[in-house]
Amino acid sequence: MSSRHATETARRRTFAIISHPDAGKTTMTEKLLLFGGAIQLAGTVKGRKAARHATSDWMELEKQRGISVTSSVMQFPYKGCIVNLLDTPGHEDFSEDTYRTLTAVDSALMVIDVAKGVEERTIKLMDVCRLRDTPIMTFINKLDREGREPIDLLDEVEKVLKIQCAPVTWPIGMGKRFKGVYHIHHDAVHLYSPTHGGKIQRGEVIQGLDNPRLDEVLGGQAAELREELELVMGASHSFDKEAYLAGRQTPVFFGSAINNFGVQELLDDFVENAPGPQPRATETRTVDPSEETFSGFVFKIQANMDPQHRDRIAFLRVCSGTFRKGMKIHQVRIGRDVKISDALTFMASDREHVEEAYPGDIIGLHNHGTIRIGDTFTQGEQLSFTGIPNFAPELFRRAHLRDPLKMKQLQKGLQQLCEEGATQLFRPLVSNDLILGAVGVLQFDVVAHRLKAEYNVDASFENVNVQTARWVSCDDGRKFEQFRDKVAANLAVDHGGDLVYIAPTRVNLQMAQEKWPEVRFHATREHG
Ligand code: G4P
């Protein structure tokens, strides 16, 4: 491969933050951008915080339109690297979006609140990361407040999340007694000075744990620190890069994001150790980022981000080759070549037109209804990236049209929204119902809102007797036909044309599974 391609690829770091709401993801994002020099003053990302409390992230996004695009993907340079930070929705009703975003990263940062420890959402997101053994760094936040004993927290992370912890920094006290962190690898103490607001302020750095200056500054806490560290070093794992890259170990940092403290240590370590772009599986072969020809996949589609253009942006992760402005690329699913002259890149401060993009980068393609989540783009090769799932919905509603003459628009709108991953559509084999499936209830509000705004369709959603759904397949064609005949009343076709078993109760599903052992019932469906 050309040396430019190799250098550019090697310096990409593409990641997302995983955390439970309120642990400090927004604050952390803002501080990373601040340290990355992407924003001068903290506070820009903060505006989005309101979205978390609003009835719908999406509707709030709508209000903020222009801003939301920059916060979906943020790119900034740091110490010779190009960092791509992919944002994930705050509200759990949009968790599918989060899961899919995690398929487009090479590593993740887990933020944990020192007082709360491992929380429910973190556990779920960690499970998703584990599907691909995504390497994870951990930041324990809010040390300026009283919290739990650091040793206990590491213990909890190890037990609950089943991943080894390797502390890289260690806190000196907490709450009112918080004095800073000791950097285990650098054998240096970084003293804490609260610096709310946007300025980067470096506190004093004291080299060496035995340095008498430490006793001068910390008084009795210096001896405490030495003692504690002896214990910690004996009881915890030391950093093992291989174990980290394999997703078996997480390096742990402590700090206070809001006070800009501990963030730089994390970022320095991140650019040094976090993996660059990784190879990706397709249905036929593994694509290596070093390959010269371009390939990538779409993991997210976002609507109406720019009030000037009522278009949708498809977010594509570059997997190999170089993307250049004006390039012609091949959309594999529909066998079509498209010339991309106006792809977007996401420098943290603005949305800009892309000239070149390398593996690990995310580009935004204008989508006029032809791009679906999961779509692969190449320079002609018939490839299809795998691992971008649809999850079996847990909530179901029947679409009810106020004006029956609008059926065509309704169908078109729903098809479109399904392709964007906003909802899932099921058409029972034996009725004309349109059944919508979602993972979170707010998705229905968003769909109703968008049908009205974009397709001028007034639809409401009513309860329907479906509790769960499974995609079905079977190697034995004849058996599958029998199955289809016998249980037709419980079968539906999804928006991609795949067959789905829709069950009124979990017991019904279980019985069907027992009765038809040859048929496989899948809780996820890959896009394609
Ligand atoms: P999220 O995106 O993960 O949901 O969390 P976010 O960053 O919005 O932070 C949640 C709350 O925790 C915010 O307080 C934020 O200011 C606070 N916070 C974040 N980092 C730290 C920290 O290092 N120390 C302390 N003490 N607090 C921190 P809030 O009261 O909800 O909002 P605000 O009034 O501060 O804006």
Automatic annotation (TrEMBL):
Segments passing through the bilayer: none
Keyword Cytoplasm among record annotations: yes
GO BP terms: regulation of translational termination
Keywords: Cytoplasm, GTP-binding, Nucleotide-binding, Protein biosynthesis
Subcellular localization, as worded in the UniProt entry: Cytoplasm
Domain Tr-type G: 10-278
Cellular compartments per GO CC: cytosol
GO molecular function: GTP binding; GTPase activity; guanosine tetraphosphate binding; translation release factor activity, codon nonspecific; translation release factor activity, codon specific
Highest taxon of the lineage: Bacteria
Predominant cellular place of this UniProt entry's protein: cytoplasm
Residues that hold GTP according to the record: 19-26, 87-91, 141-144
Pfam families in UniProt: EF-G_D2, GTP_EFTU, RF3_C
HAMAP family listed in its UniProt record: Rel_fac_3
Family: Belongs to the TRAFAC class translation factor GTPase superfamily. Classic translation factor GTPase family. PrfC subfamily.
Reported function: Increases the formation of ribosomal termination complexes and stimulates activities of RF-1 and RF-2. It binds guanine nucleotides and has strong preference for UGA stop codons. It may interact directly with the ribosome. The stimulation of RF-1 and RF-2 is significantly reduced by GTP and GDP, but not by GMP.
Protein name: Peptide chain release factor 3
